[in-house]
């Protein structure tokens, strides 16, 4: 992977990786998920900074140093508010700019074909 | 005065019809900006003409009116249309403002400008503001792998840094005043997505990765298409195709070359740099070395090489 990450971009990716994981992750596991060109120190420093400002929690674990996971309370509260914000009439949905805005009939086929071609 | 009736409508319809064709070969950033300017100017002209017609109604009602025929029912229709447009504009502005306030209220970003919501339904959106942040659900994060997550985050950040919400809002406002511009508004929204896709591809250095992220996220949604999709639905397939076939527009047989960035555009036809795959405009296979003698998709209009040839010129001027 090419492309240079900014500081904030790395922090966002770390938070995203932890939020996507089913179980707490060690710094090495986070680093493995994000790509090999990243240094140990960069990921470690980002995790510690996120822990200091209370975005993620951590606990020591034998043989792995600390393991990290995202603060679930804030995420659950965010979900509750987001549901309320998105539940609404048609015009309100139209005001959204979403990453993807749903599929039309016949869209799924070409998209699946692309993913099959691209591999898992 | 009689021209004031069909002119704004004709202008709007012309723009609505031409817009998708005009931007087919244009870079999305240019396309989005150009369409917004055109839409705002057109809706302004539309509103001004309606106002002119409506004002004749007022003149008719005045006792001092010279009574030069007047617009009568036409003036009344114009007044109603104008009032309807302004009502729609007010509604659009209100809905957008309230949506932005609600989305900002979902959570304060602390880790890298990202707010995560613990929700299985896949959503990812850019919440504009100063500085603005990305709002994403765990459902979306879990649908994507690490590389795709990076592409998705880069896409949303591109919306924020490019202030795409402003363009989309202007287009929506123009379409609210002038309903004939609804398709232009949708086209602007689609071009904003394409723009963010291209920026994301540049940020992660991998077009295919962005294409995969878009496809995966769309399939993860899997819900019935919302009625508001606009260009959304098939727009997704367009976006994926544009990312995976950079030299051809999705759908049409025509071609576009802006998508290979200037630095990667071949200086000489004999040695295209890696990553640049030339194709013929009509989609026919290229020659074995990948370069067709002429009619490469480089948008110089109708085959300049033959037009410039002496034989051709001779025939033409004979």
TrEMBL record, chain A:
- Please name the InterPro entries in this protein's record: BlaI_family, WH-like_DNA-bd_sf, WH_DNA-bd_sf
Q: Which Gene3D superfamilies match?
A: Winged helix-like DNA-binding domain superfamily/Winged helix DNA-binding domain
Q: What GO molecular-function term can you cite, just one?
A: DNA binding
One Gene Ontology term of the biological-process aspect is: negative regulation of DNA-templated transcription
Instruction: Give the matching Pfam families.
Output: Penicillinase_R
- Domain of life of the native organism: Bacteria
User: Carries keyword Metal-binding?
Assistant: no
Which keywords annotate this record?
DNA-binding, Transcription, Transcription regulation
Q: Does the keyword Coiled coil apply?
A: no
Instruction: Please give the family membership noted in the entry.
Output: Belongs to the BlaI transcriptional regulatory family.
According to UniProt, the name of this protein is Transcriptional regulator
Q: From which source organism is this entry?
A: Phytohabitans suffuscus
Upper classification of the organism: Bacteria, Bacillati, Actinomycetota, Actinomycetes, Micromonosporales
TrEMBL record, chain B:
Biological process terms from the Gene Ontology for this record are:
proteolysis
Q: What remark does the entry make about the cofactor?
A: Binds 1 zinc ion per subunit.
Show the segment(s) annotated as Disordered. Answer: 245-318
Q: Residue ranges under compositional bias (Basic and acidic residues)? A: 291-318
Peptidase M48 domain location is: 96-199
Domain of life the protein comes from: Bacteria
Alphabetized InterPro entries for the sequence: Beta-lactam_resp_regulator, Peptidase_M48
The answer, when asked if Protease is one of the entry's keywords, is yes
Annotated Pfam families: Peptidase_M48 (PF01435)
Arranged from A to Z, the UniProt key words for this protein are:
Hydrolase, Membrane, Metal-binding, Metalloprotease, Protease, Transmembrane, Transmembrane helix, Zinc
Cofactor(s) listed in the protein's UniProt record: Zn(2+)
Mind telling me which residue stretches traverse the membrane in this protein? 6-23, 35-58, 70-90
Indicate yes or no for the key word Repressor.
Answer: no
Query: Which GO molecular function, any one, fits this protein according to its record?
Result: metal ion binding
Concerning its family, UniProt says: Belongs to the peptidase M48 family.
PANTHER family linked to this entry = POSSIBLE SENSOR-TRANSDUCER PROTEIN BLAR (PTHR34978), SLR0241 PROTEIN (PTHR34978:SF3)
Name of the protein in question: Peptidase M48 domain-containing protein
The species this protein belongs to is Phytohabitans suffuscus
């Amino acid at each position: 992977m090419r492309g240079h990450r900014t500081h904030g971009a790395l922090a966002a990716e770390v938070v995203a990786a932890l939020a996507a994981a089913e179980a707490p992750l060690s710094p090495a596991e986070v680093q493995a998920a994000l790509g090999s060109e990243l240094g140990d120190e960069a990921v470690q420093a980002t995790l510690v900074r996120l822990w200091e400002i209370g975005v993620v929690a951590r606990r020591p674990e034998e043989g792995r140093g600390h393991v990290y996971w995202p603060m679930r309370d804030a995420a659950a509260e965010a979900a509750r508010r987001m549901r309320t914000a998105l539940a609404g009439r048609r015009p309100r949905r139209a005001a959204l700019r979403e990453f993807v805005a749903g599929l039309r009939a016949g869209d799924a086929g070409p998209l699946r074909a692309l993913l099959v071609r691209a591999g898992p | 005065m009689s021209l004031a009736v069909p002119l704004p409508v004709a202008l709007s319809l012309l723009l609505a019809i031409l817009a998708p064709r005009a931007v087919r070969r244009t870079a999305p950033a240019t396309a989005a900006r150009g369409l917004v300017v055109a839409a705002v100017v057109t809706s302004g002209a539309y509103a001004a003409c309606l106002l002119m017609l409506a004002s004749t109604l007022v003149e008719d009602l005045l006792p001092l009116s010279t009574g030069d025929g007047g617009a009568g029912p036409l003036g009344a229709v114009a007044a109603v249309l104008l009032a309807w447009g302004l009502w729609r504009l007010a509604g659009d502005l209100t809905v957008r403002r309230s949506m932005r306030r609600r989305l900002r209220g979902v959570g304060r970003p602390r880790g890298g400008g990202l707010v995560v919501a613990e929700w299985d339904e896949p959503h990812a959106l850019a919440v504009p503001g100063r500085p603005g942040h990305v709002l994403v659900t765990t459902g979306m994060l879990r649908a994507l792998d690490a590389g795709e997550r990076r592409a998705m985050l880069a896409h949303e950040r591109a919306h924020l840094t490019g202030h795409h919400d402003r363009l989309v809002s202007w287009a929506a406002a123009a379409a609210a005043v002038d309903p004939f511009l609804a398709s232009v508004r949708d086209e602007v929204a689609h071009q904003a997505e394409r723009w963010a896709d291209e920026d994301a591809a540049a940020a992660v250095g991998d077009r295919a990765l962005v294409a995969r992220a878009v496809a995966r996220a769309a399939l993860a949604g899997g819900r019935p298409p919302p009625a508001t999709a606009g260009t959304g639905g098939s727009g997704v397939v367009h976006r994926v195709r544009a990312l995976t076939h950079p030299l051809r527009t999705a759908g049409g047989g025509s071609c576009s070359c802006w998508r290979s960035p200037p630095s990667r555009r071949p200086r000489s036809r004999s040695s295209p740099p890696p990553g640049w795959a030339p194709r013929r405009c009509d989609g026919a296979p290229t020659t074995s070395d990948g370069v067709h003698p002429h009619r490469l998709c480089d948008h110089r209009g109708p085959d300049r090489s033959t037009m410039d040839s002496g034989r051709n010129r001779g025939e033409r001027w004979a």
